[in-house]
Amino acid sequence: MDFSAEQLAQLLATGQRPLWLSNANLSGADLQGADLAGARLVRANLSRADLRAANLEGAELTYADLSTAQLDAANLAGASLAGGNLTDASLAGANAARADLSRATLANANFSMANVQAANFSESNLAGANLAGANLQHADLSETNLAGANLRGAD
């Protein structure tokens, strides 16, 4: 399902929660600062989307495509991104505490200064990712590919 910018703005303005946008094509959408808490975005295409400072707390983004998406300062606390594609995504300063990123492709993603405390990265690919200064306390990194990842200053 494809959304025009106008249709998306109208949907967000309704205040209806949770939003059901599974399988939606939101590629390149401007969702900066949007309240998508609890939204269902399973298998949604959010590649190149601008989600800076968006609220995605508790959102279901399982198998979603967030490649090259901008998620700087976004709230992803408790969100599920399991099996998702976040290749080259930027999550600088994002809050992804307790997020499920298991089996996700996070190659070259930028998590600098992000809060990923107690997040689940098990079986994920973080090759080349930037985790400099990130809060990784209690994060599950079991069977995670960290080849070439920058962990400088990470807790």
Give the key terms.
6% helix, 155 residues, Pectate Lyase C-like, little secondary structure, 1 helix, elongated
Polypeptide structure, described:
By secondary structure, this protein is largely without helices or strands. The protein contains 1 helix and no strands. The protein has a single domain (19-155), classed as E3 ubiquitin-protein ligase SopA (Pectate Lyase C-like). Helices cover 6% and strands 0% of the residues. The longest helix has 9 residues, at 5-13. The model has no long low-confidence stretch (mean pLDDT 94).
Can you lay out the helices and strands and say which pair or pack?
Elements: H1 5-13
Helix content: under 10%
Mean pLDDT: 94
Assign the CATH superfamily.
E3 ubiquitin-protein ligase SopA
Number of domains: 1
Distance between the termini: 41 Å
| N-to-C order of helices and strands | H
| CATH overall fold name | Pectate Lyase C-like
The CATH architecture name reads: 3 Solenoid
* Count of distinct strands: 0
Class based on secondary structure composition and strand pairing = little secondary structure
Weakly predicted, low-confidence segments: none
Gyration radius, rounded = 14 Å
What is the beta-strand fraction?
Answer: under 5%
Identify the CATH class.
Mainly Beta
How is the biggest beta sheet arranged? none
Helix count equals 1
Give the overall silhouette: elongated
